[in-house]
Every structure is written in C-alpha cells, then in structure tokens.
Amino acid sequence: MTLQDLKSQIEHDALPNLYLVTGEETALLQKAKRTFTSIIPEEDQEMNFGSYDFASVGLDDAIADLTAPPFFGDHRVVMLTNPTFLSATGKLSEGQEKALLSAIENPVPGNMLVIFAADMKLDKRKKISKTILKAAESLDLPRLNDRQVDQALTQLLKQRSFKIDPAAKQELLLRTQASYSKVLQELPKLLAYAADTKEITSQAVDDLVIKESTAQAFDLTDLVMKGKKEAAIATYHDLVKNGEAPLRLNALLLGQFRLLLQVAGLQGSDAEAGKALSVHPYRVKLARQALRTYPLGKVRDGYLKILDMEIAMKSKQVDPLFLFESFIVNF
Fold first, then answer.
1. Which domains, ranges and CATH numbers included, belong to the chain?
2. Fewer Cβ atoms within 10 Å of its own Cβ: the N or the C terminal residue of the chain?
C-alpha cells in the first residue's frame, strides 16, 4: 500500500490493528509517522499515543500500551521504531515474544501497532517475523528514482509559484545525489534566497547547497579522466584546504573508479544496478553517462594507480599532495 492508501483508510476509519512500514526514503518515512500520529487528536495524544525506540527502551512499555484499551477515545496508536528483534542479530526474551505474539493475535479493539522497520533486513525464519509479515498491512516507501525526484521538485515549486533554472535543477540533483529527502532539506534555503525573484538560479544552488562527498569525487574523477591536470590539482588542493583528509579523498576517488568498473559490467536498470551495488541509482546513472566518454581501459589503469597511491600514503612518509600531483602528471 501507499501513503495515499493509508490516508484513505484513515478517512474511512478502516484501520487494521497492525502495520509494518519499510523503505529507504527518510522524508516519506517521516511523513508516514506524522500521518499515523494524526490519527489521535492532539489533545488525546498524551493518553492514546506512544512512540518507542526498541533499541533504547526495549519492548515492555510498548506492550503495556498495546494491551490497554483506548483512554476515552476510539483508537490508541503504539509506534515502534528500530525493531532489531526482527533481524538476524536481535532477539526478544521468551516472555516478551509471547506477550507480543499474544497482542498481535488477540488485539485490543481500537489499538494499533505500527512497526517502522525502515530498511532493516528482516529474518523471515523467526516466528515473530513470520507472524508480523503475515498479519500486518505493509506500507513500503522505497527511495524515489531521479525522475520521480525531478517531478516531485517541479510540483513542489509549482505549488509555491517558484521556478528553477534547468541548469540549477541539474546541479541540485547532482549535489544531493538526487535524494528526495536531501532535496527537501535544501529547499527552504533556496526558497528564502529566491523570495523576491521567485526563481532559483545556478548561483543560488552553488552558494547554498554543499556538495556531497560522492559528488565531489565524481567531479574530481571527471577532471582526471578528461586530462584536465591543472583543474584536477586545483580542485584537490581546495578540498584539502576545506578540511578533507588526503586519505579520505583518495578513498573517495578510488571508490568512484571502482564504481565505474562495476557499473560497466552490469546490465539492467539503474535501480537494479544500484540495489546490486548498494548505491543510489542516480550514481549508477551518472556512471553510465560517464562511461560513454571514458575508455574502459583507462578507467582500469586509473583504478590501479590510485590503489598504488593509497598503499604509498599508508606505508611511506610521502607528502600526499606530491603523490596526487605525480599521479595526475603521469596518468
């Protein structure tokens, strides 16, 4: 089911007793939490709403809430986050598991348990996991792809009567790795900056939105691969001056070259490749675009040379800046 389905259930008072919420999109998960919270009127939330982080407080208080009837209301909502007992490494005591199973199989009328598993990998062999997966209404909130993020951004700006320059939009998506949640974090600053003109420019994005480290690594890789030696060295020096450790920069650069090699060997959609490599699909898209102009042999050669540079940084008393400059000159 979707967030829209959830809102429809709330409007029609057709709410099940158990929800399992999964997904990777932080902004949507937060929206789901606000939506579940809204089921209980604000004046009744102290008595009929409880939110518990299992990793911090355990399960006893949540079960106590779940087994008590609503207090002068129609519903009681119990929200449980970080349910590590559903994973392969976590567990419940025998008594806690028995109590939770009983609360799920014999729910108190009007009470609702909402389990936020986010992107946690559930151990489906466990009895408690099997029971929850079978009984729960599943709300999955996967990460939006770059096209969906683009459309959502356009819609949000349209609702506020703002425009964004195409180049500015592209740069914003690059700097946030096309993460919907990160775009939403950056948007208030951009809207305030463009309050008079109602148009977000590339200059605004450049001034206000800090580049993700992966975006910086992509820029540096692009300069290296295109043979822009002076620009690559200047960028590297600027990053070090701004506090980036040379070893970390080298690791980011190595990771970007590794990603190019991995993507070159994968078929399927950006989303499928991203899932296989545990990276955002937008990074796969950028890598595939780059591989149209980067000779694969040169990418492989660069990866090996950067690996040698990392070994030298860790094992020899050599200035990292000198190593990087030597790499650029000789590559």
1. 3-141 (3.40.50.300), 146-208 (1.10.8), 213-330 (1.20.272.10)
2. N
